[in-house]
Amino acid sequence: MLALIDGNNFYVSCERVFKPSLRGRPVVVLSNNDGCAISRSDEAKALGVKMAQPHFEFRHLEEQEGLVSLSANFTLYGDMSDRMMSLAAGLGAAQEIYSIDESFVDLSGIPGDLRGRARSVRERILQWTGIPCCVGIGPTKTLAKLANYIAKTAERKPGSYPPLQAQVCDLSALAPNEMNALLASTEVGEVWGVGRRIGEQLREGGVITALDLAHLDPATVRRRWSVVLERTVRELQGLPCIDLDDAPAPKKEIACTRSFGHPVRELPPLIEAVSEFAARAAEKLRRQGSLAGLVLVFAHTSPFRPGPRFARSLTVPLRRPTSDTAAITQAAVLGLECLFEPGFDLAKAGVMLLELCDDSVMQGELDLEVEVGRERGRLMHAVDVLNDRYGKGTLRLASTGAVGEQREWTMKQRRRTPQYTTDWRQVPVARA
DNA sequence: TCTGGGGTCCTAGGACCC
DNA sequence: TCTGGGGTCCTAGGACCC
């Protein structure tokens, strides 16, 4: 048996902990550059603000309806998440932290009243952190997610589900007919794993509710769609297909990308931005104890605006796997200089670190450069510690140094950015 | 004027090998 | 004129998640 614990309107709830005057008011938290809504209070949802809706489309509600729009404070949300997660872990034996505001907890072997236990953990989280949560319980991840959705919706929209299911919903405690009634009241698109595309196709085929989906034949679903959706159907039927992952593997790719507040046309500010992205990505890389073999850098114009389009990416191999900020920044800037072309209003750029490996792979090596690399590793570690203690960006590298030995290589297109094209066939390789 | 920033998994089809 | 077939690896692309 599994539980899914999820903070309600998480970013907004974090803000309300420190600004109680926001309670009861419509509030949204905005993305970087205040571009669009990424968290909405119930009151803001009731006003019709949609997830990821551009700010300019609902800004009028600030005057008309007293809507409060806040810039995001991700450091705060991360801290609040840590506190919430450690309390949620008390619900069972193992926990998988699934996102900043959600975790699955394994309830197998837990005796007694699961619902009562979930209620008291929920109360503790509310009391100790100020974050309201909902808990869904079910025999599979998909059913626990669905139960969580029911718990949230029953609370937010009275009449949508029986009031008994509000805040904590335990599907395992229900008789089959009660369970079916809940599934029949849930739109198919709300099921975990059914997105916009597949949701449309299902509805065209007359599959309207979660119960309809649960009644499909898994083999048919596999033939018509995929094994992914087949698993969803089986999980809805109560057969676990997705395991709890309480020791997630290190990330295989690490990215830092941003939309710009204003269009960028010149190379120098772009280099500045990309250097910052590279440094952030390298920090994340060191935090998980990995080295990167490739650095991908990209820049593109806005897909929403008219005018000439530009979209290119370039992968720059590092001479040897590294997590050194200077080497990674240098590679990113090198790639950027190769792909840049003046005359475009660039809206977004980013750096991705690829072909990651564990930093122990270099341990056996004895040559001088590796030794120098290790010294630099200790330096980078010291930088990270200081930045953790005194705040992001307290200590930064002043220069990435001169471009070292140059080697020719053949450009490789990445799958993630197929629309990107470039004439560059040869660029210098960066030194690790 | 103003449109997020991360990730993961699966599959089809081509390249290549024997 | 006839023109193998199966296995594996890699990549592009699609779909999903929060």
Secondary-structure blueprint:
Elements: E1 2-7, H1 10-18, E2 27-30, E3 37-40, H2 42-46, H3 55-58, H4 60-65, E4 68-71, H5 74-88, E5 94-99, E6 102-106, H6 114-129, E7 133-138, H7 141-156, E8 168-170, H8 176-184, H9 196-204, H10 210-214, H11 218-224, H12 227-236, E9 254-264, H13 267-287, E10 290-301, E11 311-322, H14 325-339, E12 346-354, E13 357-358, H15 368-390
Parallel strand pairs: 2-4, 7-8
Antiparallel strand pairs: 1-6, 1-7, 2-3, 5-6, 9-12, 10-11, 10-12, 10-13
Helix pairs in contact: 5-6, 11-12, 13-14
The protein binds a DNA duplex (18 and 18 nucleotides) through helix 3, helix 9, strand 9 and strand 12.
List the secondary-structure elements in sequence, H or E.
Answer: EHEEHHHEHEEHEHEHHHHHEHEEHEEH
The number of E-state strands comes to 13
Helix content: 25-40%
Major sheet: arrangement of strands: 5-6-1-7-8
SSE-based structural type: alpha+beta
Number of helices: 15
Shape, principal axes of CA atoms: globular
Q: How would a textbook summarize the main sheet?
A: 5 strands, mixed
The fraction of residues in strands falls at 15-25%
How far apart the termini lie comes to 48 Å
Poorly predicted tracts of residues: 399-432
What is the residue-averaged pLDDT? Answer: 87
What is the C-alpha radius of gyration, as a whole number of Å? 25 Å
